[in-house]
Write a structure and sequence with these properties.
The complex is a heterodimer of chains A (about 450) and B (about 525). Chain A is α+β, with helices and mostly antiparallel strands and about 450 residues long. Chain A is about 20% helix and about 40% strand. Chain A has helices at about 25-35, 75-95, 100-105, 105-115, 125-130, 140-155, 215-220, 265-270; strands spanning about 5-10, 15-20, 45-50, 55-60, 65-70, 115, 120, 170-185, 190-205, 210-215, 240, 255-260, 275, 280-290, 295-305, 310-320, 325-335, 340-345, 350-355, 360-370, 375-380, 395-400, 410-415, 430-445. In chain A, the strands form 5 sheets. In chain A, strands 8, 9, 11, 12, 14, 17, 19, 20, 22 and 24 form a 10-stranded mixed β-sheet that branches. In chain A, strands 2-1-5-4-3 form a 5-stranded antiparallel β-sheet, sandwiched between helices. A 4-stranded antiparallel β-sheet of chain A has the order 15-16-21-18, with no helix packed on it. In chain A, strand 15 and strand 16 form a beta hairpin. Chain A is elongated. With about 525 residues, chain B is mainly alpha-helical. Chain B has a domain at about 455-535. Chain B is elongated. Chain B starts with 5 loop residues before the first helix and ends with a helix. Classes of the chains: A alpha+beta (about 450), B mainly alpha (about 525). At the A-B interface, strand 2, helix 2, helix 4 and strand 7 of A face helix 2, helix 4, helix 8, helix 10 and helix 12 of B.
């Protein structure tokens, strides 16, 4: 196929020369320069034949790119290839000018090695090339963003390579939420918000188009859905069949950010999340809600100072979710004054220890079911201090992990369409997991 | 760090510390590469020792650069090659597939005997490598070997393995195998395309890269299906490729289809119709070289199919209009196509376009465009008024080359056609004085001779030329002679003195051809006036 590739500047000096076949000698380089670049008459045709060798050239600004061959090659293919090559170079370092070529010398040789093996065009997709080429283009910084934008606009897919194949088509959805709370001593919610991330691990063949449905309030209202009972599923990974029911609560998402692959135009018009996922693990979206958060735990503290040397603390922890669910790694931190000398602690569930270095009683409960109550009483002995200042009690903080989304977020469906390969939505095995973690979960006392 | 001398780079590369300082090392190697590409052939053999050492470096980029430099310096003989071979053989066992592929490439690119003895076994080994990237490289290396020793094509192990790899999972490996087999088995007619193989390739076509698809489609053109049912099946399956994003694939598919339906002419129209969108798309893409290729294809391959092409573009002729910035050759090709597309409805529009191009800056384009106008005159006698206006306008153009081109084209018309354009003649005398280049003057004089002009004007013109006779170009003089004779034959009384003068001048001219001609014509006139009239009018 292509025997050699040469790049010249407007003066005819060779910037890059790569010869793939033996039948192209050094004189080919000179022949092109003399006959085309320095020819007195105007260029007659992009294909020039000199001594049984064909030269195909394109001229971009003042750079000449010439492909040379002695064999019978289809001209259209060579020109498309040269065109694509300039696109690839532009994607790495911006406009194809003499200066850029000189600055990215080695990169161009690497690219040429990858895209043209022995004169046959191989893979010219920029996304895939990046995995093989070690260098970054000089001047690529500002172009990264534009190429991302252009790919969104033109629909080019740089985040997924073609020809991916799996025997079992599976996808795993992790809804990871972090609930943050600040509660007053009287039990009033001062501020609460949930920050959520949807992480998807997709092992799907081909280039599947996925549609993701959630119980977003805007969407539900537009479809005339009623708000009804909560219907959480069991803990751990659960197989999610594409069930849909109008008796589910909907959540109001304050703001959300999507991964590059999500088609924003569709989201704006129909409020549907449609995308072609990258292979493997990636974060699909991030969101925040502040309304209608179901707080998994309620801490009720009771502090009584007995004289100046003793303090009695009683903390009740109530879990507020379905009894069938289990919260894990529950930890309650009750801060103690700085002049504590000793603590006696009684609790029926879990283990509580006084940690002097942290000035807190740390109460750990391995597992706690829903709609349960646990209590801890502690007697704190204080040292005599001359300190007249009253101890400002820091809030009681909690850490936990629950198998549901405290915001009420529900994955309604995740449909996969791959028209070209022969697997349908039903053949894909889907798993959904909800993990709600505590962020800053504090109750003042 | 610019303009480093060879000595400096050599010192840098040979220093012990260079291996640890990766960026500096990369920079030095890139300088060496620049030297390799420079016009003046440099002697790069002093670089060989440090470069061979650097081939064993762990940094991938340094390795790549070192191997590349090694291949460029491969003409030198040196014992260092043994060291290089050892490094490469070790790298072929490396765990990183990029390194394995790189070392195999380098090994096969070197022509020296030390490398040649190891490459066969390495290639065969890596053809079965677990990594697809390495398999691709190995397949390509087979071709490199083949060009060195043709016996590889007879080697059963390699050829069988290549045929096996056609069924590989990785699409690039498959395409590479096909290209390699085509080349190696050229003497036997390339890859054997059985029905099963064709079916398999067609099924996998979607998964190939653009270039892969194009290549496989070209390969499929060799296949001759046995039954009409098979033809229709193939066409149905390959139908989506006729209208592909990549124009080359569509073109190849079109060629394949045309081959398939050679015996079924009814389908031709449908096939072209399917391609219509693709053709229109090509014209609107920015790639002028590609458009030029397609136009070439349409002109050459489909001379008998003019109707088909006309149908394709009839409603979309605007797509073919030229843009200002396009190169000259492309405009000329487009003009030729435009003329084919003219019909009643779009006549005015295309005519205006042609007039526009006739006044183009580029003389080549302008003359081609005027040539097209001429074609119109010949093919569409009914619309001569519009064409006349066109010619008028052109003759009044400011640009000399436009006028000169118009005149040259007018000259090529036959006398009958010219009679229809007689209004043009009024401007001729004015132009005659304006023109400076020889062809234009010749044309003007000829035209003056043809038309029955207002005698006073033509008399003036000829007299002027007589006054300038000695400065005139030979061709002009010849034409002047002919014109004088013509005018004389039309109006003997008026032009007789003029003719006498002209003949006199010619006979005493330096150019012997002219003298001879003058004598010749004079004798004809002298002997037989009647025949002379017939000849010169």
């Amino acid at each position: 196929m292509i025997g050699g590739l040469f790049i010249y500047n407007h003066k005819g000096e060779v910037l890059i020369s790569r010869v793939y076949r033996d039948d192209i000698g050094r004189n080919a380089v000179d022949a092109f320069r003399v006959n085309v670049i320095h020819a007195r008459q105007q260029v007659r045709s992009p294909v020039t034949n000199i001594a049984r060798t064909s030269f195909f050239h394109i001229k971009r600004s003042n750079i000449w790119l010439a492909a040379v061959t002695k064999q019978n090659v289809n001209a259209a293919m060579v020109f498309e290839f040269l065109h694509k090559m300039t696109d690839v170079m532009a994607a790495y370092f911006g406009k194809v000018t003499e200066e850029n070529i000189k600055n990215n010398f080695v990169l161009i040789y690497e690219i040429l090695d990858e895209i043209l093996d022995f004169g046959y065009p191989q893979n010219t997709d920029t996304g895939i090339l990046k995995t093989f080429i070690t260098q970054q283009g000089v001047k690529s910084q500002s172009k990264e963003e534009t190429s991302q934008i252009t790919s969104q606009v033109t629909g080019q897919i740089g985040w997924r390579r073609e020809g991916i194949k799996y025997r079992r088509n599976e996808l795993f959805l992790d809804v990871l939420e972090s609930v943050n709370l600040l509660m007053s001593p009287q039990g009033q919610v001062l501020s609460a918000h949930v920050a959520g991330r949807i992480v998807m691990k997709s092992y799907l063949s081909g280039m599947p188009e996925c549609k993701f449905g959630i119980n977003d309030k805007v969407l539900m209202e537009s479809k005339g859905g009623k708000s009804g009972q909560d219907d959480t599923r069991g803990g751990g990974y659960v197989k999610n069949t594409s069930g849909s029911s109008s008796t589910k609560t909907s959540i109001a998402i304050d703001d959300c950010q999507f991964h590059q692959c999500v088609k924003l135009s569709k989201f704006e018009t129909e409020h549907s999340i449609s995308f072609i996922p990258p292979d493997g693990e990636f974060e699909l979206m991030r969101y925040r809600t502040t309304k209608d958060i179901s707080l998994p735990f309620r801490t009720i503290p009771l502090v009584r100072e007995v004289g100046r040397q003793k303090m009695e603390v009683k903390v009740v922890v109530k879990s507020n979710f379905k009894p069938s669910l289990l919260a894990q790694k529950v930890e309650v931190r009750i801060p103690t004054p700085l002049n504590t000398s000793g603590v006696q602690v009684i609790c029926m569930k879990g283990k509580a220890k006084y940690k002097a270095s942290e000035n807190a009683i740390v109460w750990k409960i391995k597992r706690m079911g829903g709609m349960k109550e646990c209590q801890l009483s502690a007697e704190i002995e204080l040292l005599n201090t001359n300190d007249k200042r009253k101890w400002t009690r820091p809030p009681i903080s909690m850490n936990f992990e629950v198998p549901f989304a405290p915001s009420g977020f529900k994955v309604r469906y995740l449909k996969v369409f791959e028209p070209k390969l022969n697997y349908s939505d039903h053949d894909v095995i889907k798993w959904v997991r909800y993990i709600g973690r505590s962020g800053l979960y504090e109750t003042r006392c | 760090m610019e303009n480093l001398s060879i000595d400096y780079i050599l010192r840098e590369l040979s220093s012990m510390k260079i291996a640890t300082d990766v960026p500096r090392c990369r920079h030095c190697l890139s300088k060496v590469l620049q030297l390799c590409s420079s016009i003046v052939a440099q002697d790069l053999s002093p670089f060989l020792p440090p470069v061979v050492n650097l081939m064993a470096h762990s940094d991938l980029l340094i390795k790549k650069s070192a191997c590349l430099i090694l291949t460029k310096v491969s003409e030198c003989k040196s014992e260092l090659f043994l060291l290089a071979v050892n490094t490469l053989l070790k790298d072929i066992e490396d765990s990183n597939p990029t390194v394995r592929a790189l070392s195999l490439h380098t090994l096969c690119a070197m022509k020296h005997a030390t490398f040649v003895e190891h490459r066969y076994s390495s290639v065969v080994k890596l053809l079965s490598d677990p990594s697809a990237y390495v398999r691709r490289a190995a397949v390509m290396s087979v071709v490199t070997m083949y060009h060195d020793e043709k016996s590889v094509s007879k080697d059963a192990v390699v050829v069988n393995r290549l045929y096996e790899l056609v069924r590989d999972d990785d699409p690039l490996v498959v395409v590479n195998c096909l290209t390699v087999l085509e080349e190696i088995l050229e003497s036997e007619g390339g890859v054997v395309l059985s029905r099963k193989m064709v079916g398999y390739l067609v099924k996998r076509l979607e998964s190939f890269t653009t270039w892969g698809k194009a290549y496989v489609m070209k390969l499929l053109q060799k296949y001759k299906p046995k039954s009409e049912e098979e033809i229709l099946d193939l066409m149905n399956v390959l139908d989506p490729f006729l209208d592909n994003n990549c124009a080359t694939i569509s073109l190849y598919t079109l060629q394949f289809f045309l081959l398939l339906i050679k015996d079924l002419p009814d389908f031709k129209d449908d096939v072209f119709l399917r391609c219509q969108k693709m053709f229109l798309g090509v014209f609107t893409c920015g790639n002028s070289e590609l458009i030029s290729c397609f136009l070439d294809y349409l002109q050459k391959e489909h001379k008998p199919d003019k109707n088909a092409i006309q149908k394709l573009f009839a409603d979309h002729y605007k797509v073919v209009f030229c843009k200002q910035k396009e190169p000259g050759y492309l405009k000329i090709q487009k003009l030729k196509l435009l003329v084919e597309l003219i019909e009643e409805e779009n006549f005015t529009a295309i005519l205006e376009e042609l007039i526009l191009y006739s006044s183009d800056r580029d003389p080549q384009v302008s003359i081609c465009s005027i040539g097209c106008l001429k074609r119109l005159v010949l093919e569409w006698p009914g619309v001569s008024t519009q064409l006349l206006k066109a010619f008028h306008k052109l003759l009044r153009s400011e640009r000399n080359h436009v006028v000169s081109n118009t005149l040259q084209v007018l000259v090529t018309f036959s006398p009958e056609t010219l009679k229809n354009l007689s209004e043009v003649s009024t401007q001729l005398c004015l132009i005659a004085q304006k023109m400076s280049d020889a062809e234009a003057v010749v044309a003007v004089l000829y035209l003056i001779g043809q038309f029955e002009l207002d005698n006073a004007d033509s008399l003036d013109v000829i007299e002027e030329f007589i006054n300038k006779f000695s400065e005139l170009d030979v061709k002009v003089k010849t034409q002047l002679l002919m014109t004088s004779f013509a005018l004389f034959c039309k109006q003997p009384a008026m032009f007789q003195p003029i003719l006498a003068e002209v003949i006199d001048l010619c006979m005493h001219d330096d150019d012997c051809d002219l003298v001879y001609q003058a004598k010749c014509y004079f004798s004809v006139l002298h002997t037989d006036a009647q025949t002379a009239m017939k000849i010169f009018c």
